[in-house]
Design goal:
Largest sheet: 4 strands, mixed
Number of domains: 2
Number of helices: 14
Bound molecules: ligand EPZ
CATH architecture of the largest domain: Alpha-beta prism
CATH topology of the largest domain: UDP-n-acetylglucosamine1-carboxyvinyl-transferase, Chain
Number of strands: 23
Distance between the termini: 9 Å
Structural class: alpha+beta
Strand content: 25-35%
């Protein structure tokens, strides 16, 4: 396994480009299966999750060709309806195959997606959407079996206990594009990634109204064609670089960062005194000479504060003066990063689904363990600001969702290196690593 060694204290300066969005690209790969014709996806991020999804599509029978670093050609002329357990169980986003396979082949067999350290990841809303469209859904030996010879449009309510479901909405929309008749999806997720999916489906010939809203209306069509589609920039990656500038008192330009996708987050940055200017398709970030104010944020479905930025923003809160409060309304137990930040001298207490962070004291470098994708980013941000060396272990979590993270940080002046785990000082080796 590999580790990151970070020597803290550098002020980040310069410019960095956000890659394409992981959480847009994964459903878009699945959407390509809706047509037997070839599609090309551009601005695809270079991530292990993307390569994984390509492997799953290949197992389904699609011909996949990577044309260059960020362009993939998908030819799903002949595909089967069952996805391999060994692959599906490792990536939750593979649940997005449910809608396209059900719509195109009128049947699907998808192993239940794996668990996740960030909390319970049910798919009851996905399955209910398929049933509302006339499919028969059964769970047999851990495999979701869908039979949908009688697929037809219907009204679907996608709201759950914690608000809308993003990939559940993606599945419902994709299945409805080929369901004869009209489908209305109420309480649909309206994340930018869903809007991007609707744009790709429209270019394939789908008839979708209400794009970007919580009420989506779809007129089913006989078939869909192939397309060429460019993935939107990754708003979570872009915001992570905003936080990297803020936590190191730096000044950076983030290219291809859509401010209109980050409203709630940018409001919190403004509360903290961080100056973020939207310049065309770029974000210019200038910290405020270390005088960061404490802030409050509550994670909610879009357009609320993104849960995928909660861990990284906790790291920033350690650097503000006073008490900050971050409350999770989407994944109540998404706090695996807190014990690791405590190892770095952070003062944080967990009260129910809120993290209360007393900032102001400098962080100190330490060996820490990444537990999931966004926690990894949080620990790296903390390491950039900490005094001394921080060793982040299990960075394979990071590689799932951040394209060339260490190279982009190095270009901004950070002292971060990707090393084999054996390079860690012996005193640091944790037996369970
Ligand atoms: C997407 O996951 C993202 N992943 C997640 O990003 C993100 O954290 C999440 O949306 C919320 O924004 C991808 O898009 C690949 P949900 P998804 O279904 O769609 C409950 C990252 O770090 N729920 O929107 O799987 C669920 O328990 C990842 O990039 C049900 O109750 O999340 C949760 O509380 C992590 N029943 C809430 O909805 C269901 O059937 C949101 O989950 C489905 C979900």
């Amino acid at each position: 396994m590999e580790v990151f060694r970070i020597r803290g204290g550098e002020t980040l300066e310069g410019s960095v480009k956000a890659s394409g969005s992981k959480n847009a690209a994964l459903p878009l790969f699945a959407a390509a299966l809706l047509s037997p014709e070839e599609s090309v996806l551009e601005n695809v991020p270079n991530l292990s999750d993307i390569r994984f999804m390509a492997e799953i599509l290949t197992e389904l029978g699609a011909e996949i060709e990577r044309l260059d670093q960020t362009t993939w050609k998908i030819n799903p002329r002949s595909i089967v309806h069952y996805a391999p357990y060994e692959l599906v169980r490792k990536m939750r986003a593979s649940v997005c195959l449910l809608g396209p396979l059900t719509a195109r082949l009128k049947r699907a067999e998808i192993p239940m997606p794996g668990g996740c350290v960030i909390g319970n990841r049910p798919i009851d809303l996905h399955l209910r959407a398929m049933e509302r469209l006339g499919a028969n859904v059964e769970l047999k030996a851990g495999v979701i079996q869908v039979e949908a010879s009688g697929l037809k449009g219907n009204s679907i309510f996608m709201g759950g206990r914690h608000g809308s479901t993003v990939t559940g909405t993606a599945n419902a929309i994709m299945a409805a594009t080929l369901a004869p008749g009209r489908t209305t999806i109420d309480s649909a997720a309206c994340e930018p990634e869903i809007t991007d999916l609707c744009r790709m489906l429209t270019s394939m010939g789908a008839k979708i109204e209400g794009i970007g809203s919580h009420m989506i209306e779809i007129e089913g069509v006989e078939s869909l064609g192939g397309c060429r589609h460019s993935v939107i920039p990754d708003r979570i990656e872009a915001a992570t670089y905003v936080l990297a500038a803020a936590i190191t008192n730096g000044k950076i330009l983030i290219r291809q960062a859509r401010a209109d996708h980050l409203g709630a987050f940018l409001n919190v940055m403004s509360d903290s005194g961080i100056n973020v200017e939207n310049v065309g398709n770029d974000l210019s970030v200038e910290a405020c000479n270390g005088d960061l104010k404490s802030f409050e944020a509550i994670t909610l479905p879009y357009p609320g504060f993104p849960t995928d930025l909660q861990a990284q923003t906790c790291a920033l809160a350690c650097r503000t003066n006073g008490l900050s409060i971050l409350t999770e309304r989407v994944y109540p137990s998404r706090f695996m990063h807190i014990p690791e930040l405590l190892r770095m001298g952070a003062e944080i207490s967990l009260e129910g689904t809120s993290a209360i962070i007393r900032g102001g004291k400098p962080l100190t470098g330490a060996p820490v363990m990444a537990s999931d994708l966004r926690a990894s980013a949080a620990l790296i941000l903390a390491g950039l600001a900490a005094e001394g060396e921080t060793w982040v272990q299990r960075i394979y979590h990071l590689d799932r969702g951040y394209d060339s993270f260490e190279r982009k940080l190095q270009a901004l002046g950070a002292q971060v290196e990707r090393l084999p785990e054996s390079e860690m000082p012996k005193a640091f080796h944790s037996p369970s690593a």
